[in-house]
Every structure is written in C-alpha cells, then in structure tokens.
Amino acid sequence: MQATPSTYKMMLAAGWEEKCNMKLICCGEQLPKDLAEKILSKCARLFNMYGPTETTIYSSGKEILKEDLVITIGTPIDNTKILILDDHQHVMDGSEIGEICIAGEGLARGYLGKTSLTDEKFITIQQQNEIVRVYRTGDLGKILENGEIQCFGRIDHQIKIRGYRIETGEIEYMLLQEENITEALVTSWKGPSGDLRIAAYVVLNQPISDNEIPMESGKWRQSLRSSLPFYMIPNDFIFIDEFPLLDNGKINRNALPVPNINILKAVKDTIPRNPLEIMIAKVWA
User: Fold this and answer.
1) Per-position DSSP letters for 80-95, written without gaps between them
2) In this predicted structure, what is the pLDDT of residue 261?
3) Cβ within 8 Å of residue 218, ≥6 positions away
C-alpha cells in the first residue's frame, strides 16, 4: 500500500488499530519520526520513498526501522544520482544544505510546450570533468555521513529575516526532537509593529495549560539554542490541535491561524501598572 503521511495519519485517527501483514510505502511529504513509529506498529515493513514525476517518480528510498534516529529519504536507486547544489548551481559538500538535484536515466525530456520552464528546471552542470543533466527539485536537503539524504522541505518555504536566510525545515526537524511535540510547521509573519517574525505552529502529544505555555516555549527556545544559530530561534509558538489540510492531504498553509501575541496572556492577564506597561500592552495587543 502506498500513501502520503497525511493519509496514514488520518487512517490512524479513524481507528486503525489492527496490525496488517503488509508492506507500506510512504511518499509525497516528509515523514515525521513519531508518525513512522506509529505506522511501524501496524505493518510488516515500512519504506520511505522520494522522487518527483519529472524523474519518473521514485529516485531514492529506504526501509524505515524502529532504531532509526533520523528519518531520511535513503540513497539513490540504480541508474540515479542525487547531488546537492548551492545558489550558483555548484555541487556542495555533503554536510551542507542546498537544493536536491537528480540526475540519471529517469529524467524526463522536459515539459511539453513549456520551453522556458524546462530550461529553468532541467539544467546541465559540470561535475568531475563531466557534463551532467539534472532536475532541480526545489527541495532542500543534505547528504549525511552514511550516504543517506535528509530532506528539509521546499525552498519555497525558506524565509529571510534581518538579512539571514532561514531553512524552516531545519527548525521543524529540531522541534520534532522535543518530547511533547508531535508535529511542527515553521513560517514567518508580520508582527503588530510590522517586524517580520518566525512563527512555529506545534501540535502537542499532551495538552498543556495556559499557565504552562511561557515555561514550555522557553524550554524549547533554550533547547534550540544548543543546535541552531540565534536568528533561527522562533519568536512565537502557536499551539493548534491539528493542521488544516488540502484535498490532496498536504498542509494548507493559507488556513493556518494568524498568530495573536498578547503580552497580557503571558502574565496571567495582569493589568498594566504604569505608563510604560500601558504603552507596551497597546503595541502587542
């Protein structure tokens, strides 16, 4: 059976309890670790596959095991090569994050009747004195020490704040390492004063009270500081029960609630005590 992570999540929510003697394939979206663990308990074997239509669907994949610490998209299939390119279309070192590009016999000729789009997405690069034709997937990723590729999501979801380019997939990955976070999505939004801010939408495994929110979000920020640069730490955390979905099962980013920063909420609705606190309360109200 083959489905997207969102579809498997809906099946579990609908009451899928019995274990099936089936091999399951997951594709189309990033597979969160906690969801992979739940699916593994319901099937015989689970495979995470990756590849766009332009490269004849599957280009890489791997079997997911319970002991996997990181959920990757595996290694390239036969007659396929995956390269990580920078903004100047140069091949990057394995430890660096760049655009996932695919070469090999599975590449399509191009888009019928769309020459400009074909020229944009199918390019030729030089690698080790060889001219290679590749497809630019538009996904961010890096090659790990074991040769597997870790995918961080779409380049379209990159944000730029105060001159820093931020890969939101990196922040989402680190948030998912936190014990009580089961799903995370990071984006940017314009705050009340017009400043661009990083917002992290999170779904929790166990709900927390309003009084616990400042302490919990502070703990996450502290944890993120040990693995991410300061400019990638979310300014705001938004707690939601579940992500809104499109008809194809992917997250509907346009339907996410607008962050509502309320300084009074964090201090248990304390009334401003002086002119300075009144001014701050008006700014953040």
Assistant:
1) EEEEEE-TTSPBPPTT
2) 65
3) none
Residue 99: φ, ψ to 5°:
-85, 130
Say what the pLDDT of residue 209 is.
Answer: 87
Q: For residue 133, what is the domain's CATH number?
A: 3.40.50.12780
DSSP run (H or E) holding 50: strand 45-50
> Does 36 share its domain with 119?
yes
pLDDT at residue 284 in the model: 57
Neighbours of 279 (CB within 10 A): 10
Going 73 to 75 to 78 to 81, the CA torsion angle's sign is: positive
Cα distance between residue 97 and residue 54, in whole Å? 22
State residue 185's pLDDT score. 93
Instruction: Give start and end residues of each alpha helix (H) in 161-234.
Output: 168-175, 213-225
Range of the domain at 185: 158-284
Residues 76 and 149 in one domain: yes
Which stretch of DSSP H or E encloses residue 154? strand 149-154
What is the reported pLDDT for 281? 60
Which residues, given as ranges, of the chain have pLDDT below 70? 261-274, 277-278, 281-285
pTM of the model: 0.72
Are 38 and 46 in contact, with CB atoms under 8 Å apart?
no
Q: Are strands 159-161 and 122-127 parallel, antiparallel or unpaired?
A: unpaired
Spatial CB neighbours of 83, under 8 Å, sequence gap ≥ 6: 91, 101, 102, 103, 125, 127, 132, 134
Residues 92 and 177 occupy one common structural domain: no
Measured between alpha carbons, how far is 150 from 167 in angstroms, rounded to an integer?
A: 13
What is the count of structural domains for the chain?
2
> What is the rounded CA–CA span in Å between residue 106 and residue 116?
21
